[in-house]
Design goal:
- The complex is a heterodimer of chains A (about 325) and B (about 200).
- Helices cover about 75% and strands about 5% of the residues of chain A.
- Chain A is mostly helical and about 325 residues long.
- Chain A starts with a helix and ends with a helix.
- The mean pLDDT of chain A is about 90.
- Chain B has a seven-stranded mixed sheet with strand order 1-7-6-2-5-3-4, sandwiched between helices.
- In chain B, helix 1 (about 1-20) packs across helix 2 (about 45-50).
- The mean pLDDT of chain B is about 90.
- Classes of the chains: A mainly alpha (about 325), B alpha/beta (about 200).
- The interface of A and B includes residues 86, 99 and 102 of A.
């Protein structure tokens, strides 16, 4: 991966936004009077502080090129899986299967990314791990709720590990003619659009949100937030076309795919939370909740963005 | 010095492995002696409870351990006896010379604290078993010692009874208020009250 002027612009742009957001949060903090307003601003400032840390960690990972990104997303998967399994009902007899999931399958999947072994990377979990886990559970002899228990572990692995591992794959397993050694920008572009969509939906929703899309699942997801957030994130993605192998309208369509998948990712992961009766998956990132609360949109968007790019541009 | 560094390192490792969310409903920074009594479903119970204590208190807090189990084999003897400074008690055939309660009182009289699992053995994690009477004997004869309930969640999922390898889920540790004193309470009423106070600390 090379460091060119465009990468510098992207990183600089992120820094400018963070500085502006921090200044804005401080100004808001001086102006609000009501208790509810103060709580919202305190949460907003905690979120902004969280963003500084996340951007710093992600920047460090990009600096070390491939290895850093594989390690970073591997850790993200590990922490997300930990939160997922913690809020999911598992039985004593699932212990062996869980041990394999955490300590063997997850590291192997990321080793396949680092090794750039695309063929096995794309089927290792959906074929081998998905057959191995029910076998392990069946061998314990405990058939109580067997299908549910097996499916939960499989789905946790799918969301937290398989889907997330497509993010570093953008860096390491896409060979785009005329865009050699520049995939770092594409990974940054993907993460920027996905996360900006989250933030913009939150802002539009706070400002204009009236009509909830799925009130039973997430009262904070509104039509106003959705349209405003997706619209402005697609606009941002389109304006960043110069950092990608896409032309402006291709970049617009790619951003649309990322933001739509991201929205549905957030919705699906919220549905699981409501089903389990928890508000957040964890407390790892102050203001944001757990790791899985932060990356729910990224999970669903990563494989779709990866494969669209691979199919049309690879 | 080295022992303290190793202890601090182990405490950090334990906290990474078991990811405990710790709640202190009462400040426990002050001077011992105290008895921390907790539900028991995993070998990790006393380790995590120890790791979530204020650093200065760890060296002065001794888990009460069953001699029949924890002195079997060198590894167990080292972990429970040497490293965690466990108090080995006879749970199978207590005699007046070899009396668990007397041993515990001696530790408390030396201004050190205890970690006690009043269920007497590890359960499945689904229910908290009735308490054995040792806690009541301490309550009766040492009115100045604070009895602090500590509710431990999910540790039986991280390392269940009978498993050797842990699965790194997240756990919850809740330190409750010291058990208030009550007059004219029978042994069984006290033990049931202590048990219910502990169960009410459940986080979820």
């Amino acid at each position: 991966m090379q460091f060119d002027r465009e990468l510098g612009y992207l990183v600089g742009g992120v820094l400018v936004v963070l500085v502006l957001a921090t200044a804005g949060g401080q100004l808001l903090g001086r102006r609000v009077r009501s208790d509810a307003g103060r709580a919202t601003v305190a949460n907003l400032n905690a979120r902004i502080a969280g963003w500084w840390v996340m951007c710093a960690v992600f920047g460090l990972a990009l600096l070390t090129a491939g290895v850093g990104s594989v390690v970073l997303f591997g850790l993200i998967s590990f922490l997300a899986l930990r939160e997922f399994v913690t809020v999911t009902f598992t039985k004593r007899s699932d212990h062996q299967a869980l041990f394999w999931t955490f300590f063997v399958i997850t590291p192997l999947q990321y080793w396949l990314v680092a090794d750039e072994w695309y063929g096995l990377f794309s089927i290792f979990i959906p074929v081998y791990a998905f057959l191995f886990l029910p076998i392990t559970n069946a061998l314990t002899g405990d058939m109580d709720q067997f299908l549910e228990r097996t499916a939960k572990i499989q789905w946790g692995l799918m969301i937290c590990v398989y889907l997330v591992s497509h993010a570093p794959a953008i860096l390491l397993m896409l060979d785009i003619p005329g865009y050699e050694d520049q995939n770092g920008k594409l990974l940054l572009y993907f993460v920027l659009v996905a996360q900006a969509s989250d933030v913009l939906q939150y802002i539009w929703g706070k400002l204009l949100g009236r009509r909830p899309i799925a009130p039973n699942i997430s009262p904070n997801k509104t039509w106003e937030g959705f349209v405003g957030g997706v619209g402005s994130a697609v606009a941002l993605g389109t304006l960043l076309w110069w950092a990608t192998p896409f032309n402006p309208w291709q970049s617009a369509l790619m951003s649309l795919a990322i933001t739509l998948m991201g929205f549905f990712g957030g919705l699906t992961m919220s549905a699981i939370k409501r089903d389990r009766g928890v508000k957040d998956y964890g407390t790892l990132i102050p203001g944001h909740g757990g790791m899985l609360d932060r990356i729910d949109s990224l999970c669903f968007a990563a494989p779709v963005f990866f494969h669209l790019t691979r199919y049309y541009f690879g | 010095m080295i022992a303290a560094l190793v202890a601090a390192f182990v405490a950090v490792l334990v906290r990474i492995l078991c990811g405990p969310t710790v709640r202190y409903l009462r400040d426990i920074e002050g001077a011992p002696p105290r008895v921390f009594f907790a539900n028991h479903s995993s070998h990790l119970d006393f380790v995590v409870l120890w790791a979530t204590l204020p650093a200065a208190q760890r060296a002065r807090t001794h888990p009460v351990a069953a001699r029949d189990y924890w002195t079997r084999g060198r590894v167990r003897r080292f972990i429970a006896g040497r490293f965690f400074g466990g108090l080995m008690i006879e749970r199978l055939n207590p005699t007046s010379e070899d009396n668990p309660v007397e041993q515990m009182l001696r530790v408390l009289d030396g201004e050190d604290s205890l970690i006690l699992f009043p269920e007497g053995t590890r359960g499945t994690g689904e229910a908290v078993a009735p308490f054995r009477s040792g806690l009541f004997r301490i309550y009766e004869s040492r009115p100045d010692v604070e009895l602090i309930p500590v509710y431990l969640e999910n540790l039986n999922r991280i390392l269940p009874k009978g498993e050797f390898l842990p699965v790194p889920l997240l756990s919850y540790v809740t330190f409750g208020e010291p058990l208030p004193r009550k007059d004219n309470e029978t042994r069984d009423d006290f033990l049931e009250r202590a048990r219910e106070t502990l169960i009410r600390l459940e986080a979820a």
